[in-house]
Amino acid sequence: MKPIKGGRIITTVENQELIKEGDSLKKVTIHNLSENEINVVINKGNKIPISPDESIRLGNLKVISIIIVEKNSTVRYIGV
């Protein structure tokens, strides 16, 4: 059984990585708890805007990198 990982993060720097190097997650959900739109970069791809109180679900995609672009963003994420 794989442990469920995640948490509630307030970014302290621009382009903050949420996944530790060498880790990966599947069944990832990212929820923007900030009052402003944020941008997320997943697996070194394009910036994806997420509106306030919006979530994105990534299904069975293997996620090795989640970068929150803006400093002082509040995000909750979870994955297996």
Count the E strands: 8
Mean pLDDT, to the nearest integer, reads: 96
Q: Please state the structural category.
A: mainly beta
- What's the order of the H and E elements? EEEEEEEE
Helix content: under 10%
Q: Strand order within the widest sheet?
A: 1-8-3-6
Which shape, going by the Cα principal axes? globular
Low-confidence sequence ranges: none
State the end-to-end CA separation. Answer: 10 Å
Count, helices: 0
Which radius of gyration do the C-alpha atoms yield? Answer: 12 Å
Largest sheet: 4 strands, antiparallel
Strand coverage percent? 35-45%
Question: How would you describe what is shown here?
Answer:
This protein has 80 residues and is mainly β. It contains no helices and 8 strands. The protein has strands at residues 5-10, 16-17, 29-32, 38-42, 47-50, 55-57, 66-68, 74-79. Strands 1-8-3-6 form a 4-stranded antiparallel β-sheet, with no helix packed on it. A 4-stranded antiparallel β-sheet has the order 2-7-4-5, with no helix packed on it. A hairpin with a 4-residue loop joins β4 and β5. The protein starts with a strand and ends with a strand. The mean pLDDT is 96.
